Task: structure prediction
Amino acid sequence: MADADNTEKLVRYLITSLVDNPDDLTIEAKHNGDSTTYEVTLNAEDVGKVIGRQGRIIKAIRTLARAAGSSETARVDVEVVG
Result:
């Protein structure tokens, strides 16, 4: 479970670095069997910054999160809720 904590910290660090309102950021981990989904909720003004042009930034964040979570042999995903 320590790897899951580190993965969440990584996602939080990456997204906090991008947004203008880091105090509005919440990350909720949802575990479903062998997969974990991190649901990211943030200020509406910051959603575009996290998604990026054609979704490039969120794809990069997902790739890093999957790589960080690969040591726990579980599927990791990051979803932007709003």
Summary: The chain has a mean pLDDT of 90.
